Records
---
Amino acid sequence: MRLTATWAEYCSPRIEADADWTAEIMIRFVHTADWQLGMAPKFLNDEARARFAAARIDIIGTIGALARKTGCDFVVVAGDVFESNQVDRATVRRALDTMAEAGLPFFLLPGNHDPLEPGSVFRTDPFLSHQPANVRVLEGGGPVVPMAGVEIVGAPWLSKRPVRDLVGEACRDLAPVEAGVRIVVGHGAVDMLSPDSRSPQMIRVERLEDVLSRHCVHYVALGDRHSTTKIGQSDAIWYSGAPEPTDFTEIDAGNVLVVELDRGSVGVAPHRVGTWHFVDKVVDVNGSEDIAQVANWLSDQSSKSTTLIRLAPVGTVGLQRKAMLDVLIEEEGHRFAAILLRASRSDLVVMPQDSDFSDLGLSGFAASTVARLREQASGHDGEAAQNALSLLYRLAGGDPG
């Protein structure tokens, strides 16, 4: 259901025909990005995946409530509103309904996940036929005026693989602002943080600092980097980070920024809004005492149902202790959203001992298989054999202790 007000009527208290654009203006808004609505990691089970996807919709309501509480005038979403242009209809409808209920303007920038190309989610019937009056897509082609004295310049992605600096291009012809403030909303990697700084699509920080110094722009709201990050020497170039985390590699996700801006100053305050947690943990495992410590650490974690754990065990154990660890992860995994093993940094060496199989009474083919796997397990590429031995130990009724 569309909001009954038109955009002009919605903003009418702030946009007046005789507004004095030369007057000093101070605004406050929420800068957010990388919602990636519709995202659901494949390593989650069906139940956790549904909750994870729902949380990404629910965070819109949280952002709206924060905006109202802090007296913000509007919300800018700096790209990747949706996980892809193939997101399902229900996700689009629920997102639009939640923004409508938030009761203030939202400005959405297409990013690399949802570029404004043919077939873009922003041009589909589920979006266009249910787009509320308080939601606008930043399609480029000129500034948008959300209120008197404020311009928003968007640098949308028009394809998955742009061949130029879209943000720099959007700023190229901007003249100094004589009155009011101007915000640029962009998406992508900046050259100073990228190993491929010479790529033509990199956002050039020097260009942004130049337009800021000449008062052509007063704040640059960026998306793509999921960790909250200030860029360069200026206080006016920020990545907000993703409001809900998406990966174990993110340093400071789960935030949005409340930005207070006038012609002479900018204040940026991060606010924690995320409800899910990605936790990476290296654990020493050399005996039963170490496994007990891992069990205690897992037990101490809060918000287990919305926490994903990735363990990197380090140490040397026999099959019995390995079985203890496997059982622990399997049992605790039911309490958490997921517990994964980080194979790329797992330095846990499984060294089968005679005592591991002495009480199992194996003979014939099973005994010869154990002997062959033990020989392979001590080799250079013995991880597969170690895993096979651990599984065989459990299937044969080995006591994990």
---
Amino acid sequence: MSLDNIQLVEKETVGDLVFPLDEILTSNSEILNRKLSIDRAISLGNLERQKVKIIFSDTIGIKKVNTTIWAVTDKAILLKQNTVVPIHRIHKLEI
């Protein structure tokens, strides 16, 4: 999947999006790199309140949000106001 036509969304609207259940990354190395990026982003968010760009897919297409990650579970990242993005729908993070 090409990451060309990415729609920028506001973090306040992410909670209204619908996320499919399937994994979007195809290789174990991509999945590992995503996990490492998330771990780094949560550290930067908690220590320095640094924002990251999260590129993910919902049912409609590819989106990007610029925000701080507040917490991470084994299945999702949590943004402000209990907004959740499933990890299996994240293409990459730009830190």
---
Amino acid sequence: MRFTLSLADIEAARERIATHVKRTPLARSDVLSRRLGTNVYLKAELFQKTGSFKVRGAFNKMLPLRRGDRVAAVSGGNHAQAVAYAGHVLGLETLIFMAETTPRNYVDATRGYGAEVVFVRTAIEGFDLLDAHAAKGWVPVHPFKDPFVMAGHGTAGLEIIEDVPEITDCIVSIGGGGLISGVSTAIKERVPSARVWGVETDGADCMSRALAAGKPVTMTAITSIAKTLGAPSASDETLAIVQRNVESVTVVSDAEALAALRFLLERTKMLTEAAASCTLAAAERLRAQLGEHVVLLLCGGNMAVADLCQALATSAIAST
């Protein structure tokens, strides 16, 4: 059966999750508009509950479940927190498989919402365990290829086009592709002339590799600082949607993402993750191709302060 994700799915998701998520702010940035020579707007999903867009998909998937159901997921960051938080609210038992290298702030927040955390060596090992637990009756909440998760994420796209109906371009980060699948479907269905651009960081670029190969490619290691973009591969479903809806995928360096992060913090006072600030880095690369109304989706802001300081210090040393 051919996979589909429709505008109707996303509109139904918005009705379902409305009382459990925030409608996050979207505002024009004067400083970025001057910098890029066009109208630039920031969709601040970093102010969403748990600090990222991920609760949209988690709630859309988990709300139909019954109190006491057992839910399992794989994540080294924002998806883990979202599933744990939704489970806490809905009275569901949650189990998260996390890489051993997951930053402590993500682990503490996930456990703080009541989830059990099991450490694994790699994301691939985590997905194998997820499949095994699904066979035992646990409900798997996949971070990007689940249609309910994608539809939930697409609700951010509905908000974007309602707040900026004249939108010409939207730049969206890609991990496994669930966010851009949902957002691009909403935008292209409502405003067909609008263009959606994807962005990844070097070393967390599974979608770019999939596009080049024409099929999902598994990455054995994630080397980028943008760990929350660190899906080991895209899925057949997300690849197909990106091929259909997205103009191109720009791969930026960690240094570019960190420079953009610093600029956003200093000039807009928003502390994003590198996984979110890379949208600004991509906009810098794409500026000659962008239209008059450009939305940057800032997908999350859960980077630990200690990790931020270390990353910026390392970047500063490397640039000297």
